[in-house]
Amino acid sequence: MRRYGLNGKVMLITGAARGIGEHAARAAAARGAKVALVGLEPDRLEALARELGPGHAWFEADVTDQQAVDRAVAGTVEALGGIDVVVANAGVANNSTVAASPVDAVVRTIDVNLVGVVRTVSAALPHVTARRGYVLIIASAASFTVLPGMAAYSASKAGVEAFGNALRLEVAHKGVKVGLVHPSWIDTDLVRDQKRESETFNEMLGELPWPMGSTTSVDECVTAIVGAIERRKRKVFVPRPVGVVSALRSVVLGPVGSLPIQRKAKEAVPRLEAEVAASGRYFGATSAGLGTRDPRVAVGHEERTPERTPIGEPLP
To answer: CATH number of the domain at 10-298, please?
Structure first.
């Protein structure tokens, strides 16, 4: 397959202030792409844009706010000339069970991870279509596996997978390709927060069979992502053996496959709920605007409203 060269291509990445998005931006820029960084942490976005050098832009935007997403997309087109690739990466993970979480924390997870992807892709799609470009959606191994405490996260990622698969059929005749990335545990702030703040989570992770219990470096994940973009691939699994789990999902999620986790849940769920109750934190400490003891603030209510106006400019 002929490579889809990134040199000169414009790539918009959400969740670009940290983790996979931040490292993907560096890798794409190193290959000559012009990158639009979109996220909720302006200081980090600005610093990253300056690090990448001339020809990049950054925009502060909440992916759950359509007007903010639209402005970031319009700003990217104005500053960089169009959009060839959109990487819908922004995501959060709430820390507890449905029973022990404020409903707004559960809904916020789905809103960011699923609805935020829909908003981002919908806003960028006309520009990507004009260039017969590529849509890459960061899904998860949680699209087809589950653990206690991950109901909202797994639901959001399963939805993302279905959205991407259907979108692929809708835009193929227009020359647009759609890819889905399914990482397992990646060594990012999001995963480190979960490990640091929950002994129970660490225990459950340690008992999962390989490859589902292993943690992969962010560099390895980003290498797979950049490779997916350059080949305009349909599916990418990180690490690669996660694809076997996807193929066997009916077994993994069936009565026999889920029995060991169900047995463990009897004593793990009360401990997990107690840990979160003690911390008062429903999202990881580094989740922008979410790492707080106040659930009203944690889900973006009136006490913490992100800036809605894109404030990025292309660097000279």
So the answer is: 3.40.50.720
